[in-house]
Design goal:
It is a single chain. The chain contains two helices and eight strands. The chain has 98 residues and is an alpha+beta fold. The mean pLDDT is 95.
């Protein structure tokens, strides 16, 4: 189903399938890998971890998590919390402020 990238809030790998999830909570399977998708996206998206690429506007809040990790709560209905590793936390926070 073709649709505009502007409606996509995140891409997530679940049970070996990559899904794109729209800001209104709808979820669609895709046959692309996260690596392929990541190469096509601009800097409004961030590769949060091995399972998730998130849009800047899809972030509700970011909280400190144990061991200097970050916990991201998405605005998207039905989306799970996203953990940013300690190694990526500084880069993620810099990306958020750009």
């Amino acid at each position: 189903i073709p649709f505009k990238i502007a409606v996509i809030g995140l891409f997530a790998l679940t049970d070996g399938i990559v899904y794109c999830q729209t800001f209104d909570g709808r979820r669609y399977a895709t046959d692309q890998t996260l690596e392929e998708i990541e190469r096509e996206l601009d800097n409004t998206f961030y590769r949060a971890n091995r399972q998730t690429i998130i849009h800047r506007e899809a972030i509700e809040e970011v909280n400190r998590y144990f061991a200097r990790k970050l916990l991201v709560n998405p605005k998207i209905k039905g989306a799970e919390e996203i953990i940013i590793s300690k190694a990526k936390s500084q880069d993620f926070l810099f990306w958020l402020t750009r």
